[in-house]
Structure formats: structure tokens, C-alpha cells
């Protein structure tokens, strides 16, 4: 096995969908929910997009009854960069299977070149499906408007900071400003009456969400926290003990390199983890 594969195992459940489902079962036993992601992005040929689409359908069918059939997908692996119609057709077919099995599909948000297209495809899908949600990135200058629009439309939103490197013309660069933007967006979503997902490992943002929800009388059942597999495990269990909904993003598959590098770039402790293991 490639030695890096060993390190990636901290963040990736395994290569096969069965590996991810086993993790989902272990989380379920602890009262923690999961969203499963078959890793892959930036697909430029139709056949590969079709294979990625079929893999997501297979995954939805594989998740056993009793565990929420919740998957996250990247539309760049479903043909978004080839043609909008192809992507729409592929994602619609996934949503049809999700509907059949009582599942839910979250459209991950990728780099800012695709934000507008992702939102437009999402709006198109929402005309026909209720079992689909979007991700909005607090760092982007456009996001406060997108959040307001999502609340007005009653969309299902996951809020995160944004994992892609973006220029200052597109996104905030300062962590203090990104945190302030995240809090403001989270407040609007909590006030909005939907079921927002607050996706962060940042303690300041977790505590702010809890405090704001309490102050506004928003019950813990009206939103959930989300974190990534491999990060802050103890915190997942604490939040569940305190009565909050907790969902873990469980990636699996062989195309883990871009995902893995985004995690390394975000946090020096993740890089240290890799180096510690490299020299042991
Ligand atoms: C469920 C989920 C889904 C996501 N989906 C998307 C998506 O679709 N598109 C996208 O662009 N991005 C996505 N992201 C990634 C996100 O945008 C951020 O890049 C990523 O979460 C890092 O930001 P952060 O807020 O978690 O904290 P960071 O900015 O990484 O960390 C800030 C602070 O959090 C605390 N902290 C973080 N990690 C730890 C730790 N392991 N132990 C203790 N304290 C810690 C520390 O205080 C740290 O200083 C997703 C994230 C999650 C959790």
C-alpha cells in the first residue's frame, strides 16, 4: 500500500463503499449521523461522469435501513464541467434513487468558478425535488445574499467557511472576518426557520451557534452540527450528549488526494500528524 494511503486513513473511511457504511454503523451506535461521499472531482469525460453517477446510486442503495441514506456529491464529478444538461440529467437520476430509498443528497460547493452554476442547477433540481440541499461558503463576498435567498426559498443549507483558495476579489482572506461572516450567516439561517447544518470544527463558531440558538429560542432539533471524519472525535460525542444533532462527513474511495491536501492546508496539526507518522 502507498504509505500516504496509510496517513489518508485518518481522514478517509477506506476504499470501498462498504468501509464507509461500516463507519456509518459505528457512528449510528453512538447517536451520530453520517453523510457519505465517494471521493472524486473534476471529471472531464462523459463515461467517468456516468460511472461517478452510478457509484452514488449504488451507495444510496447499499446504506442499510435504519441508517440515514444521506450522501454528499461533487457535481464536478457528475459532468458539470462538460455540460449543464448532462450534469442535470446525472444528478436528477441520483435524486430519483434517493427518493426511492428515502434518502437525501447534499451538493457540495466547490471552487468559486462553479458557484453560480451550482446554485442554478440546484434551483432547477429544487423545482422537482425536496430531498436535495446546497452548501454555502461563508468566506465568499456573495454568500450573505445567497443565504438570504436560500432562507426565502426554504432551501436546505450547509454553512461552511469554504475550503478553496480564492482571490480577494471573490472571498474574504482574514480569518477574523471569515468567522464574523460565518456567525452572521449562521444567525440568519437559524432565524430562517429551516434546518441548517453548521459545518465547522472551530470552537468559537460552535459556541456562538449554541449561544445564539439558546438566546433566540431555537431548539437543538432545528439545526445540526457537521464535522469531517477524523477531526475532533471527542467533540462529536460531547455535542450529542448535550442534545445536539451531529453529522459526520465520511469520505471513501481511491481519489482522495485533492481532499487530503485541502485538509493539510487548513491546519498545521494535520500536516504534523502526517510527518509524525512518516518518521515513526
Ligand atoms: C461536514 C463538512 C462539510 C464541508 N463541505 C464543504 C463544501 O462543500 N465546500 C467547501 O468549500 N468546504 C467544505 N467544508 C470545509 C470547510 O469549508 C472548511 O474548509 C473546514 O471545515 C475548515 O474550517 P473550520 O471552520 O472547520 O475550522 P479551521 O479554520 O480549520 O480551524 C479553526 C479553529 O477550529 C479549531 N479546530 C479545528 N480543527 C480542530 C481539531 N482537530 N481539534 C481541535 N480544534 C480544532 C481550532 O480552534 C482552530 O483554530 C466542509 C466542512 C465540513 C465540516
Question: Any overview of this molecule?
Answer:
By secondary structure, the chain is α/β, with parallel strands linked by helices. It has eleven helices and eight strands. The chain has an eight-stranded parallel beta sheet. Helix 6 links the parallel strand 4 and strand 5. Helix 3 packs parallel to helix 4, helix 4 crosses helix 5 and helix 10 crosses helix 11. The longest helix is centred in the first third of the chain and has 17 residues. The chain starts with a helix and ends with a helix. The mean pLDDT is 91. The structure holds flavin-adenine dinucleotide (FAD).
In short:
With 280 residues, the protein is an alpha/beta fold. The protein has helices at residues 3-8, 17-29, 46-62, 84-100, 115-126, 143-153, 175-191, 203-216, 233-241, 257-266, 268-279, and strands spanning 33-38, 70-73, 104-107, 132-137, 156-160, 197-199, 224-228, 245-252.
The whole-number mean of residue pLDDT values reads 91
- In the sheet with the most strands, the strands line up as 1-8-7-6-5-4-3-2
The largest sheet is: 8 strands, parallel
Secondary-structure-based class equals alpha/beta
Bound molecules: flavin-adenine dinucleotide
Amino acid at each position: 500500500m502507498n504509505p500516504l494511503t496509510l496517513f489518508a486513513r485518518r481522514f478517509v473511511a477506506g476504499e470501498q463503499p462498504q468501509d464507509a457504511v461500516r463507519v456509518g454503523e459505528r457512528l449510528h451506535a453512538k447517536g451520530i449521523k453520517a453523510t457519505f461521499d465517494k471521493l472524486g472531482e473534476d471529471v472531464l469525460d462523459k463515461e467517468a461522469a456516468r460511472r461517478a453517477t452510478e457509484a452514488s446510486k449504488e451507495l444510496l442503495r447499499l446504506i442499510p435501513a435504519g441508517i440515514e441514506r444521506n450522501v454528499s456529491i461533487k457535481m464536478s464529478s457528475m459532468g458539470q464541467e462538460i455540460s449543464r444538461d448532462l450534469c442535470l440529467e446525472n444528478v436528477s437520476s441520483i435524486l430519483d434513487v434517493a427518493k426511492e430509498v428515502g434518502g437525501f443528497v447534499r451538493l457540495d460547493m466547490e471552487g468559486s468558478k462553479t458557484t453560480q452554476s451550482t446554485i442554478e442547477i440546484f434551483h432547477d433540481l429544487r423545482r422537482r425535488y425536496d430531498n436535495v440541499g446546497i452548501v454555502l461558503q461563508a468566506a465568499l463576498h456573495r454568500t450573505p445574499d445567497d443565504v438570504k435567498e436560500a432562507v426565502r426559498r426554504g432551501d436546505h443549507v450547509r454553512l461552511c467557511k469554504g475550503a478553496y483558495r480564492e482571490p480577494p476579489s471573490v472571498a474574504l482572506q482574514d480569518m477574523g472576518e471569515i468567522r464574523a461572516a460565518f456567525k452572521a450567516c449562521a444567525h440568519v439561517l437559524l432565524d430562517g426557520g429551516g434546518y441548517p447544518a453548521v459545518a465547522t470544527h472551530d470552537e468559537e463558531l460552535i459556541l456562538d451557534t449554541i449561544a445564539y440558538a439558546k438566546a433566540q429560542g431555537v431548539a437543538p432539533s432545528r439545526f445540526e452540527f457537521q464535522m469531517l471524519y477524523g477531526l475532533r472525535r471527542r467533540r462529536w460525542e460531547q455535542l450529542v450528549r448535550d442534545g445536539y444533532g451531529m453529522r459526520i462527513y465520511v469520505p471513501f474511495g481511491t481519489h482522495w488526494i485533492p481532499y487530503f491536501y485541502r485538509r493539510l492546508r487548513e491546519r498545521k496539526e494535520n500536516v504534523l500528524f502526517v510527518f509524525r507518522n512518516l518518521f515513526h
